[in-house]
Amino acid sequence: MNDAGDLVREMRDIGVAPEGISIMAPKGLFRVIRLERVPLKAAILIKEEMLSKGGEAAVSDRVASLSTDSTDVLLMGTVAVLRRAAEGLARQPFGLREISREILDVLDLDPDLDLGLNLNLNLNHDDAAGAPGAAGPEVRARRRVLRLRGHALELGRKTYIMGIVNVTPDSFSDGGQHATVDEAVCHAKRLVDEGADIIDIGGESTRPGADPVPLEEEIRRVIPVVERLAGELAVPISVDTYKAEVAEAAVAAGAHMINDISALRLDERLGEVIARAGVPVVLMHMKGVPRNMQENPRYDSVIGEILGFLRDAVARAQSCGIRRENIVIDPGIGFGKTAAHNLEILRRLGEFRSLGLPLLVGTSRKSFIGKVLNLPVDQRAEGTAATVALAVASGADIVRVHDVRYMARVARMADAIVRGGAWRGGVD
User: Fold this and answer.
1) How many CB atoms lie within 10 A of CB 426?
2) Does one domain contain both 182 and 45?
3) Shared-domain flag, residues 27 and 176
4) SS3 assignment, position 263
């Protein structure tokens, strides 16, 4: 058991006092933290500090022979051990004060710890257990809310479904199917009826090899759809663009969020536009640009490099005036990654939660699913469903999908298993 909510429930079940739960929970949660490119002297001190506190630190075998200038370090221990070690490192030289802060930041931003250690510990066990349809006592975490101009998505309560509306002639999966305003509006409404919590509208294909669409053409495709839907939908509207002028026009037309595949790298004005509008932004990792991103993408450490990219993107957004609570991150499945990279990202998706920000995942119908299953794009629903379920299990807050009816059901079932008390069902 390594989930804070489950641990707290188990301790409650055996009658542990609330004060005891808050003291003991950090001792029962094991974490592994990777530090990259740590100088040799600092790595040696880190290993000594971890061992002295009852943890462990794995380093390169070249550290023992002093034949390297730096090494990555894997810290292994309970939350309590990691915190004590970080506090000890803060008093050491060789840049360890900064490393100590980074470790503590990771622990402080861990959503599982937020769930387990910021509980309403006075919740009446008997009342909760006896509630119709309840899955045991409900854990009440500190509320994390993503606010989208009048809409509020309470994070952690459920996985939200972002339905895709492409008003493009050449998107990889549904290009040309919703190219007119009327077709796009009807499709968006159908997706909401099927369970979409957010509608994401895109006017430029970002499939591998795609060329950019002229600004005027993207505005012509997207803005009339946003204007129509803003007055007719009860759910928030996201616009998939990296262009400041498109974002500005979309927000003026009623959009609630900007979904930027470039993480504010391709248009230097975009961050200012989003900050001024006060809307959330999705910052996605992409290696290169759509035209060349799949030309032999290589990584030394795919997860480490994407995490570093996203940290820089968050800092860039905040420097533009975008509030941290308005930032969503996306590891960019399929954008400058091989099939093996995409599978590793999904396998280790939970590591992105260390950034402490809402996590969006988009796997729908993508080519890595086709490569694994040897299936064309129109036969990848089951493969997509597997990735959605695993994304939910790893803590995704939003999943971006084409097949909303089926993926909403997949996410609801996965939520019932993973989130426990957040589920409201009708079976005993």
Assistant:
1) 6
2) no
3) no
4) coil
- Per the CB < 8 A criterion, the answer to whether 222 and 167 are in contact is yes
Looking at residue 304, the DSSP 8-state letter turns out to be H
The whole-angstrom separation of Cα 317 and Cα 312 is: 9
**Catalytic: which of 31, 366, 380, 419?**
366
Instruction: For residues 377 and 366, give the distance between their C-alpha atoms in angstroms, rounded to a whole number.
Output: 7
**Among 70, 102, 117, residue at a domain's last position:** 117
Which among 74, 28, 84 is positioned nearest to 54, based on CA atoms? 84
Catalytic residue check, 53: no
Give the pLDDT of residue 142: 53
CA distance 125 to 15: 10
pLDDT tens digits for range 308-361: 999 999 999 999 999 999 999 999 999 999 999 999 999 999 999 889 899 999
- Structural domain of residue 111, as residue ranges? 4-117
pTM value is 0.82
Tally the domains of the chain: 2
| Closest to 197 in 3D by CA, of 152, 135, 133 | 152
123 falls within a domain: no
Which is the catalytic residue, given 158, 353, 400, 419? 400
Report the DSSP beta bridge partners of residue 77.
31
Q: What per-residue confidence (pLDDT) applies to 328?
A: 98
> Quick check: helix, strand or coil at residue 307?
helix
CB 121, CB 137: distance < 8 Å = no
Please answer whether residues 137 and 129 qualify as being in contact, where contact means their C-beta atoms are separated by less than 8 angstroms.
yes
Q: What is the structure's pLDDT at 128?
A: 39
Query: Cβ distance 128 to 117 under 8 Å?
Result: no
Q: Is 400 a catalytic residue?
A: yes
Confidence (pLDDT) at 113: 62
